[in-house]
Design a protein that fits this description.
This protein is mainly α and 398 residues long. It is built from 13 helices and nine strands. It has one domain: Glycosyltransferase (Alpha/alpha barrel), CATH 1.50.10.10. The chain has a three-stranded antiparallel beta sheet with strand order 5-6-7, with no helix packed on it. Strands 1-2 form a two-stranded antiparallel sheet. Strands 3-4 form a two-stranded antiparallel ribbon. The protein starts with a helix and ends in a 5-residue tail after the last helix. Bound molecules: glycine. The site of glycine (GLY) has 4 residues, from loops.
Length: 398
Amino acid sequence: MNRFLIAALILGASAGVSNAQQKLNYKPKTDLVKLIDKNLKDAAAQYKVLMKNVPADSLPETFQHNKPKSTTPKNWVSGFYPGTLFYLYEGTNDKTLYEAGLAKLPIMEPIKTIDSHDIGFMMYCSFGNANNIKPSAAYKDILLTSAQSLCKRFNPIVGCTMSWSSKPGEFRVIIDNMMNLELLMWATKVSGDSSYAKIALQHANTTMKNHFRPDYSSYHLVNYNPATGGINKKQTVQGYADDSAWARGQGWGLYGYTMMYRETKDPRYLDQARHIAEFILNNPNLPKDKVPYWDFSAPDIPTAYRDASAGAIYASALIELAGYVDAASAKIYLDVAETIIRTLSSDRFKAAYGENGGFILKHSVGHLPKGAMIDVPLTYADYYFVEAMLRYKNLGKK
Ligand code: GLY
């Protein structure tokens, strides 16, 4: 077994979903904590508005054309709503939110056997957070079954879990899959069965080798030959162009390798996360307020759509990454994360009470090339924004 994996297993206890390990001796800024406390209180009230728009058998996805859009548990976004409710409960102690999150778990449970590369998003954000608040054997069982479902999508020749389905001769892998590895790392820790983590490590290593360009921006999709592991082509699905840097994809990579470093202590993952951060932070197309355009190569910058979801993911990942680096780098990462949180807290991005269908943030981009969910609220933007705020508040705490 990889020596870093052994170290991670010895370290043992779960880092928790919201409280990433923080070695950093940094006191969060008082005025930003005040703003975050206000945001959390506002978000709790706002989610009580959102709740009214969600049918019992559905989960909220967005609000567009002045209408709430809910979705089924099978959609990749399903776990974010209960996850956000659990985070808001952690941030406010408001039990109504906790109970509303719990109320969605029965419709999520059957997803544990779904054949989807996104099962980590769906189940770890929902049941993982529920288990973090109140661990239970039932949650553990559901999460382990989910991890087993994800492992079935692994091809040892390619060294990755497969995204979506593939035509014969193809095996598609998107950068987003990095996010699902957290479920596998958790599964090894709680079960003692190293097979989950071995798959996660192979996936992370293959992705590190093939998804990134020399400047550490990433392709969205690498299309492999499943029989040889060779590469058919590198392309985009949700970005502007095959050779562009889709903003949310850069976030999935940044967050994914930061998380893999937390879980393994393998310095190659830390280096990778730092290189990705460098690409994002030094990019001339990153606006001064640090919430990115939906793609770093969008042709209509500076009038291109912003993607609040990507900004929220960057903020959350950078706060964690700051805990693993030298003081000077940590300051750079935290400065950017603070700027993102402040920007997302402004009227431009944060919805007024009762507006925006009850979602917290405005102005995200779902799938622009498909013409879907452009400049709208998205459930995952809220999730990572609340996560980033909790992580910031917890800076310096054990
Ligand atoms: N495919 C997940 C995303 O839109 O980021």
